[in-house]
From TrEMBL:
Organism taxonomic ancestry: Bacteria, Pseudomonadati, Pseudomonadota, Betaproteobacteria, Neisseriales
Gene Ontology CC annotation, any one: cytosol
Keyword Transcription regulation recorded: yes
GO MF term list: DNA-binding transcription factor activity; transcription cis-regulatory region binding
Species this protein is from: Aquitalea magnusonii
Gene3D superfamilies in alphabetical order: Homeodomain-like
Protein name per the record: AraC-like DNA-binding protein
Keyword DNA-binding part of the UniProt annotation: yes
Keywords assigned by UniProt, alphabetized: DNA-binding, Transcription, Transcription regulation
Alphabetical list of InterPro entries matching this protein: Homeodomain-like_sf, HTH-like, HTH_AraC, HTH_AraC-typ_CS, Tscrpt_reg_AraC-type_HTH
PANTHER family xref list: HTH-TYPE TRANSCRIPTIONAL REGULATOR GADX
A Pfam family recorded for this sequence: HTH_18
Occurrences of domain HTH araC/xylS-type (ranges): 170-267
Length: 285
C-alpha cells in the first residue's frame, strides 16, 4: 500500500495506467474519494456519476456499484485518494458535533472542494503519512474532524457522517473485515457475538443475507483492496483473503468483479516508488 496506509487503511491511494472497470464493488463503510488525476465513473442503480480530477466524490455505505477508473489522456495516470470513515471516529464526532447535522444539507455526491476542505484533507494526509503511535492517531482523528467540519461548512459531507446500523449484517461485516483469513464458522461467530447459532441464523434471515455470502463478500473485498493498492504476490493476497489456492481466489474474484486479479494488477504498471520524493500526495487546488 502507499505511504498513507499508517492507520489500518483509513486512507488508501489508488493508481492505474490503464482503464479499470470493476463490477459489483461493495461499499460497507462510507467513503470520501478525491480524484487527483484522470476520472472516476460510478454506475449505480440510480444512474451514473462522473468525478474528474480536482473533484471529490461521496459514497454512502450500504450499496453495490460498478466503477471505472479512467487515466488522464495526457499524463496516462489515474490517481485518487479514498478515505474510509472509522466507526469509533464517527461515534465521537456525533457526541461532539451531532447537533450540527440536524440542519445540514445533503449536498451532491460529486463536488468541487473548498479551499478549506482541500487544506484539511492535505493536513490529514500528511498526518497519516507519518503516524506512529497514540498521539499521532489522536492528531489524525483531530484532523479528520477538521475535514468533516470543513465539508459541512460548504454544504457537503452529511452522507459521510451517518452512523452505521447494528444489525446482523453489519456485525458480521465488521467481524469478517477485521480478519478475513480466519476460519470463521457460524458457531465461532455466534459465540463471539454472545448468541446462539439459531439466533444468528434468524437475524441473518431478517437481514436477507447468508453467513457464507457475507464471508465470501468480505474476503473478496479484502482481496480487491490488496490487489488495487498493494505490492504483495497474488499468492500472498489469496492467503490473506482466506483462500488456500490462488486459482480458487482468481476464479471467485472474476465471478464477482468481472476480471481476474492478475488482469487488474496489470492495469497499475506501478513504478518502484509511486511518490519518488517520499512525500505524501499533494491535493491539487
Amino acid at each position: 500500500m502507499s505511504p498513507t496506509s499508517a492507520l489500518a487503511a483509513t486512507l488508501a491511494t489508488y493508481h492505474s495506467r490503464r482503464q479499470q472497470r470493476i463490477a459489483r464493488v461493495p461499499i460497507w463503510q462510507s467513503q470520501l474519494i478525491a480524484v487527483l488525476e484522470g476520472c472516476k465513473i460510478i454506475h449505480t442503480r440510480s444512474g451514473e456519476l462522473v468525478c474528474r480530477a480536482g473533484e471529490w466524490l461521496l459514497l454512502p455505505a450500504g450499496q453495490e456499484l460498478e466503477l471505472v477508473n479512467q487515466p488522464d489522456a495526457d499524463s496516462g495516470n489515474y490517481l485518487a485518494l479514498a478515505l474510509t470513515q472509522d466507526r469509533q471516529w464517527l461515534q465521537r464526532f456525533h457526541a461532539l458535533y451531532g447537533h450540527l447535522l440536524l440542519d445540514a444539507a445533503p449536498g451532491h455526491p460529486v463536488f468541487t472542494p473548498s479551499a478549506s476542505s482541500r487544506q484539511a484533507l492535505q493536513q490529514l494526509v500528511n498526518t497519516l503519512e507519518r503516524a506512529d503511535g497514540p498521539i499521532d492517531q489522536a492528531l489524525a482523528e483531530h484532523g479528520w474532524q477538521g475535514l468533516m467540519l470543513a465539508l459541512l461548512q460548504q454544504g457537503q459531507g452529511r452522507s459521510l457522517l451517518l452512523l452505521p446500523t447494528e444489525d446482523a449484517r453489519q456485525q458480521l461485516q465488521a467481524l469478517f473485515a477485521f480478519d478475513p483469513a480466519h476460519d470463521w464458522t457460524p458457531a465461532k461467530v455466534a459465540q463471539h457475538l454472545s448468541m446462539s447459532e439459531a439466533t444468528l441464523r434468524r437475524r441473518l434471515a431478517a437481514a436477507s443475507c447468508t453467513f457464507s455470502g457475507l464471508l465470501t463478500e468480505a474476503r473478496l473485498a479484502h482481496g480487491l483492496g490488496l490487489v488495487m493498492t498493494g505490492r504483495q504476490s497474488l499468492l500472498d493476497v489469496a492467503l490473506a483473503s482466506g483462500y488456500q489456492s490462488p486459482s480458487r481466489f482468481a476464479a471467485a474474484f472474476r465471478r464477482r468483479f468481472g476480471l481476474t486479479p492478475s488482469a487488474l494488477r496489470a492495469t497499475r504498471e506501478l513504478p518502484e516508488d509511486l511518490f519518488s520524493t517520499g512525500d505524501a500526495p499533494v491535493i491539487p487546488g
